Amino acid sequence: MDTIELLQKFADPEVMKALSLSDRLFAGLITTLLGMGITFVSLVVLQIVIQLTAKLAAPKPKKKVSADVVEVSLESSAKKQELHDEEIVAAIATALAVQLKTSVSNIVIRNIEKVGEPSSSWHKAGLAEHMNNSL
Fold first, then answer.
1. CA angle 39-45-48, nearest 5°?
2. Which pLDDT tens digit goes with each residue over 21-47?
3. Distance CA 9, CA 53 (A)
4. More confident residue, 93 or 8
5. pLDDT (tens digit per residue) in 97-122
6. Domain range list for the chain
7. Cα distance between residue 84 and residue 114, in whole Å
8. Which of 7, 19, 114, 119 lies in disulfide reach of 23, CB 3.0 to 4.6 Å?
9. Nearest-angstrom CA–CA distance, 124 and 30
10. What CA–CA distance (Å, rounded) separates 13 from 28?
11. Cβ atoms within 10 Å of 96's Cβ, excluding its own
């Protein structure tokens, strides 16, 4: 019996019952191999498409920058940092002026220092408990 004929018979449940055990096993094996083969080929094609897409979407390598350009960018970065610091001082002065109900011109900020990291939750809870017990 030809493989194509066997698979056509395998499609009809009534005819399939009449087939011998070896014909049913052979048709099942062919069906399994065809399904696995089609899946494997599809996955290979999908992998190729993904690799091509990755190559097309990859960022272009940047050109080398001369030392003059690097120095200019560092200088502009320092200017940006100074501007950022001035903005922070202005924001702090404004917040103080609002809190103290006075004009910003009356406030002089001489030094701003960053405070360390906040304490852990356990430390805060212990401190609160100690303060509550001492009252």
1. 140
2. 888 888 888 889 999 999 999 999 999
3. 43
4. 93
5. 888 888 888 888 887 777 666 678 88
6. 3-57, 71-111
7. 15
8. 19
9. 71
10. 13
11. 14
pLDDT of residue 135: 57
Q: State the sign of the Cα–Cα–Cα–Cα dihedral 90, 91, 94, 96.
A: negative
- Interval 53-101: pLDDT, tens: 999 988 777 665 454 454 555 566 666 676 677 888 888 888 888 888 8
Decide: pTM greater than 0.70.
no
Q: Which residue has the tokens 């970065």?
A: 77
Q: Minimal CA–CA distance to 31: which of 51, 55, 8?
A: 8
Q: Which two tokens stand for residue 75?
A: 């200088």
Residues sharing a CB contact under 8 Å with residue 107, sequence separation 6 or more, in sequence order: 93, 96, 97, 100
CB 109 within 8 A of CB 89: yes
Asked if 16 contacts 24 with a C-beta cutoff of 8 angstroms, the reply is yes
Phi, psi (deg, nearest 5) at residue 79:
-65, -40
Q: Where are the alpha helices (DSSP H) in the chain?
A: 3-11, 13-18, 21-57, 67-100, 121-134
Q: Encoding tokens for residue 45? A: 């094609």
